[in-house]
Amino acid sequence: MNNIYMLGIITNRGMREKFLQFFKEYHIEVTFTTLGRGTASSSLLDYLGMEATEKAVYFAVVTFDTWKNLKRGLYTRMRIDVPGRGIAFLVPLSSIGGKKILQYLTVGQKIEIEEESVLKNTEYELLVTIANSGYTETIMDAARSAHAPGGTFIHAKGSGVEHAKKFLGICLAEEKEMVFIVVKTAQKNDIMRAIMEQAGVDTPAGALVFSVPVTDTAGIRRMEELLEEEEK
What pairs with residue 178 in β-bridges? Predict the structure, then answer.
């Protein structure tokens, strides 16, 4: 699958409503927002004339054509180049769990579905699962049933839930949890399948899952080693 990316934008927290409206004007209907805090020193903030370090982090799935148009708007309309205003980045996706999920996440955008080829020789991938709030353990139980390692979750707020009924045939809650799990590429399909079957959109968890290629890792204890210890 080519030309599909995960967009990330980090900006000041107080601009959420302005950014959500901005996204819709560029046909980005489905976004996920979580909160963060900047790490700039007080002396740097004073130098830049800034006060707040409270941040909002936005995630969305976009095509490259959408990104090209959005990028121009980020400079000309949102003035993202102003010091301290924010930063945007693009990460290629390697797979999305189901055609309907892809249609939902990219509603309003023109998409091309081709052979999966972006960084396909990587040894690890990052699975990103977005589910209704309160179902993190359900997600992890499903992932562990396919021998996934541990994960990390953050709380988020979704937009575009009104499109879920059209594309997925269900109603989704606005409050979300995003679960991040780094897995071996060879295990990816089994783990994604387990999450979709046990906690997918036709369950109360309502999980959406996609993967991002990882070029290198450190600190990961191989699951094979753990399984070998259990068998001893």
Answer: 130, 154
Task: Provide the token pair at 130.
Answer: 């977005």
CA 41 vs CA 9, 35, 48: distances in Å:
21, 19, 11
Please state the pTM of the whole predicted model: 0.83
> In angstroms, rounded to a whole number, what is the distance separating the alpha carbons of residues 135 and 204?
8
H-helix or E-strand spanning residue 58:
strand 54-63
Strand, helix or coil for residue 52: coil
And the tokens for 160?
């575009």
In 3D space, the residue among 144, 157, 153, 146 whose CA is nearest the CA of residue 13 turns out to be: 157
Q: Give 54-113 pLDDT, tens digit per residue.
A: 889 999 999 999 999 999 999 999 998 887 678 899 999 988 998 889 989 999 898 766
Are 134 and 177 in contact by the 8 Å Cβ rule? The answer is yes
CA distance 208 to 206: 7
- Which residues contact residue 15 at a Cβ distance below 8 angstroms, ignoring those fewer than 6 apart? 56
Residues with Cβ within 8 Å of 118's Cβ and at least 6 positions away in sequence, in order, are 1, 2, 92, 93, 94, 213
User: DSSP assignment of 60-114, as one string?
Assistant: EEEEHHHHHHHHHHHHHTS-TTSTTSEEEEEEE--EES-HHHHHHHTTTS-----
